[in-house]
């Protein structure tokens, strides 16, 4: 990291705010702005985008001059990515394969995200939770969602 | 006086079999998540929001409220017995509560915490009932300009009082406001920031954001830190506090209740700040402050009363003005909006059963909590032996299913994952998610009032300063910002915020 940056937290915060603000302002310019007395859909977001971008630039400048903002601590990439994968897997598997399979896979991946992963225990947990979620959400709360793989269900006539 | 007829209506609503059941479920869940460190009421309420969509709004609100104040009871159990705050707002209870437990006085500590919480809860319930009607009457006089200024004040107040870095928090509020505008503009029908994604036309789902930013990113944060949990396994014997204990606790409970009730109503108020303030007050008033930190019962009685009072009175601004003073109340607003109920002064007239039912249910819930917490304390302690590695996959799964069932739509699941990522990264660069959620909830309303105010005045922005109430509200917001520049206030605030952050 560049030595001139006194606070990496400020640097990234400023950057994120400035970018988000500018993107918002640019996108808002694509909608009718209207006037103050008759505001179009672009007016209020444009205003917010500009204010946010200014705040972002101010924090960015501060990151070069003051250490007040602190530094970014270590990112825990593996737990983060695995946990996100578990959620995405649930979303992707639910419709084609049904709740039981999606829940089983999601719990298994989620357990794998933690620092002390025990495969045997995780499989049992996943089984229990998959069946438990079926009982709680489908049987008790009467939510409608696919339960089994579409192919299998139609084959068995379920 | 129609207060009594209102309370009677509330009581009738709250004691219906169904609502009693929801209340019980809420306080039970609240106790459980309060006891367990690593999962708090914010994540739990986010997770349960989708489920409440299926039940009628009164029951839903009663249950969600129960989780919030129930967590204050449960959290104190963990603080006292394990020296680990089960809940952020019970962190100060650890200081003297755990010392009491080590001296073999865990029973009296738990009992005083429960009694104090109950007294505070009762008082706060009455206060809600008394204050709500006058406040709503004032609020019903408000025009769009006043509402806009009130929201500015609410948001500024929330970030000034509760965050270490105010610029960051203001930035996060604006990010939230912008995200709140995603979807179809109600006035013109233009779809904004949807990038052609059909599922975004109705806006980003509140539940997906709340689950992502709080439940998911919190779990990632927890997995990064190795778990340390030393259960203090002495048996809890003799719950009854001695006469001397009761005498020593009476005044701290009374002071904590009043202080907590007052702080709960303020923006950024609620349980957390109330408990810190009460501990500081008791220590200052004590004849011998050196006893604090060594098992002083006042250090348990005061903060425990204050956090419960604060948790409950923070409902007042949410219910009467529609302005959430803290993030839990933002979630409550979200729950109301899911049922197409616009929070604000009209709730009391349009939904009297909901309003008064919720308030009276809090008292009933507090009663249940005393019964749940004191005799069953052994059971709650045993909960702590569930390792986190078994707990968090279950939380993740319930988040996924909950988010999906809201609209039977997997897009929301992916959005939740995206906000989980965003929440984690933002917290790493020092931006807390709570102000963003406040902004997100208020975004569409703020734009609407801003537009209407300027439409009436033909585009003249001075309206916000020429209408007296609006001007006063903005003036207070200005003073709050200016106060940050005073070094003395700055230091005190920094200390409180950094202590709150150490949790």
Structural write-up:
The complex is a heterodimer of chains A (158) and B (503). Chain A folds into two domains: 8-65; 77-156, no CATH class. Helices cover 69% and strands 0% of the residues of chain A. Chain A has six helices and no strands. Chain A has helices spanning 8-29, 43-65, 77-97, 99-112, 119-140, 150-156. In chain A, helix 1 packs antiparallel against helix 2 (43-65), helix 3 runs antiparallel to helix 4 (99-112) and helix 4 (99-112) packs antiparallel against helix 5 (119-140). With 503 residues, chain B is mainly α. Chain B has helices at residues 2-14, 17-35, 41-52, 57-82, 91-102, 106-140, 144-162, 166-180, 206-224, 243-265, 271-285, 298-313, 315-321, 327-338, 346-350, 352-373, 377-383, 388-407, 410-428, 434-456, 463-466, 468-483, 487-501, and strands spanning 183-184, 191-192. Chain B has a two-stranded antiparallel ribbon. In chain B, helix 6 packs parallel to helix 10. The longest helix of chain B has 35 residues, at 106-140. The mean pLDDT of chain B is 83. The interface between A and B is large, with 75 and 63 residues.
Compact description:
The complex is a heterodimer of chains A (about 160) and B (about 500). With about 160 residues, chain A is mainly α. Helix content of chain A is about 70%, strand content about 0%.
């Amino acid at each position: 990291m560049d030595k001139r940056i006194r606070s990496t937290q400020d640097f990234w915060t400023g950057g994120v705010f400035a970018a988000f603000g500018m993107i918002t302002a640019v996108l808002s310019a694509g909608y009718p702005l209207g006037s103050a007395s008759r505001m179009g859909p672009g007016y209020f977001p444009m205003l917010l985008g500009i204010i946010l971008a200014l705040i972002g630039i101010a924090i960015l400048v501060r990151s070069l001059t003051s250490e007040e903002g602190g530094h970014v601590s270590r990112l825990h990439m593996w737990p983060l990515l695995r946990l996100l994968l578990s959620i995405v897997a649930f979303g992707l598997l639910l419709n084609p394969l049904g709740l039981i399979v999606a829940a089983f896979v999601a719990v298994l991946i989620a357990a794998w995200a933690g620092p002390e992963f025990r495969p045997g225990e995780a499989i049992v947990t996943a089984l229990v939770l998959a069946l438990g979620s079926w009982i709680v959400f489908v049987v008790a709360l009467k939510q409608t969602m696919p339960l089994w793989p579409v192919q299998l269900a139609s084959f068995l006539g379920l | 006086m129609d207060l009594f007829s209102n309370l009677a209506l509330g009581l009738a609503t709250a004691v219906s079999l169904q609502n009693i059941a929801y209340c019980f479920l809420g306080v039970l869940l609240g106790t459980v998540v309060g006891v367990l460190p690593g999962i708090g009421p914010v994540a739990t309420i986010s997770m349960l929001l989708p489920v409440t969509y299926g039940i009628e709004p009164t029951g839903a609100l009663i249950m969600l409220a129960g989780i919030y104040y129930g967590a204050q009871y449960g959290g104190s159990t963990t603080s006292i017995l394990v020296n680990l705050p089960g809940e952020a707002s019970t962190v100060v209870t650890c200081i003297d509560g755990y010392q009491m437990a080590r001296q073999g006085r865990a029973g009296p500590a738990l009992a005083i915490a429960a009694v104090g919480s109950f007294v505070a809860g009762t008082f706060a319930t009455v206060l809600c009932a008394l204050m709500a009607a006058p406040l709503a009457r004032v609020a019903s006089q408000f025009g769009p300009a006043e509402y806009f200024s009130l929201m500015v004040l609410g948001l500024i107040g929330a970030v000034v009082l509760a965050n270490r870095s105010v610029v960051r928090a203001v930035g996060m509020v604006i990010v939230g406001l912008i995200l709140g505008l995603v979807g179809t503009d109600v006035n013109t029908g233009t779809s904004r920031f949807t990038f052609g994604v059909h599922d975004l036309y109705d806006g980003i789902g509140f539940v997906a954001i709340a689950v992502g930013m709080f439940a998911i990113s919190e779990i990632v944060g927890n997995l990064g830190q190795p778990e340390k949990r030393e259960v203090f396994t002495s048996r809890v014997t003799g719950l009854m506090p001695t006469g001397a204990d009761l005498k020593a606790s009476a005044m701290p409970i009374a002071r904590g209740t009043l202080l907590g009730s007052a702080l709960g109503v303020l923006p950024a108020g609620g349980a957390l700040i109330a408990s810190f303030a009460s501990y500081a007050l008791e220590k200052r008033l004590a004849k011998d402050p050196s006893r604090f930190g060594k098992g002083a019962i006042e250090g348990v009685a005061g903060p425990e009363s204050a956090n419960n009072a604060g948790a409950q009175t923070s409902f007042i601004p949410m219910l009467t003005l529609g302005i959430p003073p803290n993030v839990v109340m933002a979630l409550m607003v979200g729950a109301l909006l899911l049922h197409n109920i616009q929070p604000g002064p009209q709730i009391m007239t349009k939904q009297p059963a909901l309003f008064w039912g919720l308030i009276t249910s809090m008292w009933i819930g507090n009663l249940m909590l005393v019964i749940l917490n004191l005799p069953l304390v052994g059971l709650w302690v045993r909960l702590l032996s569930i390792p986190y590695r078994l707990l968090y996959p279950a939380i993740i799964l319930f988040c996924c299913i909950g988010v999906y069932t809201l609209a039977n739509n997997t897009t929301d699941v992916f959005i939740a994952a995206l906000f989980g990522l965003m929440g984690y990264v933002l917290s790493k660069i020092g931006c807390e998610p709570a102000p963003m959620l406040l902004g997100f909830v208020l975004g569409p309303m703020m734009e609407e009032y801003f537009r209407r105010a300027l439409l009436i005045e033909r585009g003249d922005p001075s309206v916000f300063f020429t209408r007296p109430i609006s001007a006063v509200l903005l003036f207070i917001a200005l003073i709050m910002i200016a106060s940050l520049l005073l070094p003395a206030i700055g230091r005190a605030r920094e200390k409180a915020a950094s202590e709150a952050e150490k949790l």
